[in-house]
Amino acid sequence: MKLGTLKTKHRDGTLVVVDKQLSRCVLAPDIALTLQAALDDWQDISPRLEAVYQALNKGACKSMPFEPGQMTAPLPRAYQWLDGSAYLSHVERVRKARGATLPPDLLDNPLMYQGGSDMLLGPHDTIVAASEEYGIDFEAEVAVITDDVPMGISAADAASHIQLVMLVNDVSLRHLIPGELAKGFGFLHGKPASAFSPVAVTPDELADAWQDNKLHRPLTVHWNGELFGQADAGTDMQFNFARLISHAAKTRCLGAGTIIGSGTVSNYDRAAGYSCIVEKRVVEIVESGAAVTPFMHYGDRVRIEMSTPQGQSIFGAIEQVVKPWA
Description:
Blueprint: E1 2-6, E2 14-18, E3 24-27, H1 35-40, H2 42-57, E4 64-65, E5 71-72, E6 80-84, H3 88-97, E7 112-115, E8 127-129, E9 136-137, E10 140-146, H4 155-158, E11 162-169, E12 172-173, H5 177-182, E13 195-196, E14 200-201, E15 210-211, E16 214-215, E17 218-223, E18 226-232, H6 241-248, E19 258-261, H7 277-288, E20 301-305, E21 318-324
Helix pairs in contact: 3-7
C-alpha cells in the first residue's frame, strides 16, 4: 500500500491512497482524514485503506491524477523524528572531516539524535538557507514510521511496529554543526527542516527488497542533473530498523507516528558514489590533501529516488532547489 498527504489549507493536509505506479490517487475521508489519524488506530484503519488501494489499482474506484508537487511530507508534522546513523562508513568519514574521534562502542550502540519535527518539508519544497556560508549539504536516507511502541522493546519484537517506509533528505548545514556539537548538547541550527518522499509505503509493498528489516535497493542521488551516488541501502547498514527502534525505546515509549531515520545511506565501496557532499569531500582530502567539491549554492538542485529492478519509482522523487531566505 502507498499513502501520501495532499497539501491543503490545513497544516496536516489530507490523506490520499496512491496507486502502485504513482499515477492516480484517491481521498478516503470516511476512513481517515490524515495519515496521523490512520496511525493512531492503525490495526483497524490499515485494512480499510488496503481495500481502497486494491480497488484503485484495479481501476474500480473514482480517482484523480497523482501530482508529487502537490504533496507535503507524508507526515507534515510528526510527534517525533529520531535520526540514526546506521552506516558506519558515513560515521567514519564525517567524523574524520571534523577531526572527531569515533565512539568506542560504535559497532554495538547506535548513534541517534532527536530532530525538529514541527514542520517537515514536502518532496518539492524549497531548501531555504540564510547563507551559502553555512555549508549546505543534502543527506539521502531511508526512514520508517511506527505505530505505538512500548518502552524496553527488543529488536525482535520491534519489527512488527514498522508500518511505513519512505525516503528522506536530511538537510545539514555543515559549517554550523561542529560548533554546536562542541557545546555538548547536539544539533539545532545545523539541522534545518528535512524533506520526505511523496509517498510512504508498507513493507510488504517492497517485496524481496525488504529483508532483515533493511531496504535492499540502491538510493539514487542526482546533484544538478549529474549522478552523485547509488549506494545500496541494505549494504553496510550496521543496525537495521528494528534495532534502531529498540534503541530509541530503551527509556521511553514511542508514540504512533514516530519517524526513525537510517542516517545517510553509505557504502564502503567508493564506486557506489555518495549520498551527501561531505563524504566526497573527506575522500578528496584523503586522496589529494584538499577538498575540491563545494557544498551547495543557491539555485542548486538535488534529486533523491529509489526504483524497483524494473525501473518503477517506489516512493516518488524528492526534488528540491536551494534558495536564499527572503
